[in-house]
Amino acid sequence: MTCIPGNNLASIDVTILSALFDAAPDVAFFVKDAAGRYVTVNESLVNRHGLNSKADAIGKRPRDLCEGDFGNVPSEQDEEVLRTGQPILEHLEMQWNSRHEPVWCVTTKLPIPNGEGQIVGIIGFSRDVRVPVQTAEIPEGFARVLDDFERTLTNGVTPSTLAEKSDLTPQQLTRFTKRIFGLTPTQLITRIRIAAASRMLRDTNKTIAEIAVACGFYDHSAFTRAFRNATSVTPSAFRNQE
Question: Where is mean pLDDT largest: 29-43, 178-192, 227-241?
Answer without folding.
Answer: 29-43
